[in-house]
Amino acid sequence: MDPVQLTRTLLAIDTRNPPGNELDCANHLAGLLEAGGLEVRCHPLAPRRASLSALLPGRDDDPPLCFTGHLDTVPLGETPWQRDPFAGEIDGDLLYGRGATDMKSGLAAMVWAVLEVARGRRGRRGIRLIMTADEEVGCGGSRALVGDAGALGTAGALVVAEPTGNQPLLGHKGALWLKVLAQGRAAHGSMPGEGDNAIYKIARAALALERFDFAHPPHPLLGSPTLNVGTVQGGTRVNIVPDRAELAVDIRILPDQDPDRLLEQVAVHLGPEVTVQGTRATQGVMSDPTDPWLTRVVATAQGHGVVLGDLRTAPYVTDASVLTPALGGPPTVILGPGEFDQAHKTDEYCLISRIRQAADIYLDLCRDWVGG
Fold first, then answer.
1. Is 34 one of the catalytic residues?
2. 135 in active site
3. What is the pLDDT of residues 230-264, one digit of tens each?
4. Of the residues 72, 116, 243, 339, which is catalytic?
5. What domains sit in the chain, N to C, each tagged with a CATH number?
6. Beta strand extents in the chain (DSSP E only)
């Protein structure tokens, strides 16, 4: 089996979320991993949806090295594609398709590497693969796995195969999503004084959020927390005083920030004119750059030709926000063959050379972990 061909096979399986339909992709990978001698378990999430876990056991009881990636992709978008998004078209070093970068190339590279290790005799320590459904809509698959007793166990280290151009990244911010609600009183649009306009209240809240002060020191690598008002909704007709309006707010938080405490701070800042509800919270992840295993990861990447700059973190949230604490807080690195600037884009592509490079990096990490 070749990691590039496996990427093309996975691209041909449509897992756009919504609706997801990850089951066919999970079943295909389950067949490969079972044939390779791994202990495989399917974790149903909903009809036609499932996550997958697989374990290559070691001789000892030490926690395994864990790899994770997600099975779902985002929709195609409104802009017409010039390439078939499910054909895995190749043009020189470029492999096109929805999910080529985010992140079926990463899935293929990690599956290939573990199957290569499985062909040898059992090592001292094991390797676990976690492949999740519904990552693109709030890490739903990983959250379900955490709630499934006995599904995960612990890990000695975690590799997240999200797109980094094979640069080892040490973590990312978390995300706190809020809904800000304003209630009013409906009236005829010709008599606004008889009503209570909820849109005016929500507009004042939006302007207040633009001035929100986190009063929190920046992290040396992750920077400062951020806040964005993403959507605003309100009103039903132009001639009716709106009695309800709401904002959706995306806050990116640092690992040491408490989401519940931050929600309270936002509510106090906005005052009694609106109410604030949390809709989603994921913790940030940050690994110690001096951790010995992470030092070996960096050296391994360099040994396979990855040109490294300063220590960096990912701009996006990954399943590590859920899995790292659930697995016992192992050192975590984000390292995958996809391109930073191609995720979610029309005519998304990945470099074939990076797929092979990632597969070789993963293989070395696996061999180093399992030992003799």
1. no
2. yes
3. 999 999 999 999 999 999 999 999 999 999 999 99
4. 72
5. 3-172+285-370 (3.40.630.10), 174-282 (3.30.70.360)
6. 39-46, 49-56, 65-70, 90-91, 94-96, 127-132, 157-160, 169-172, 174-183, 226-234, 244-253, 275-282, 285-286, 312-314, 332-334, 349-351
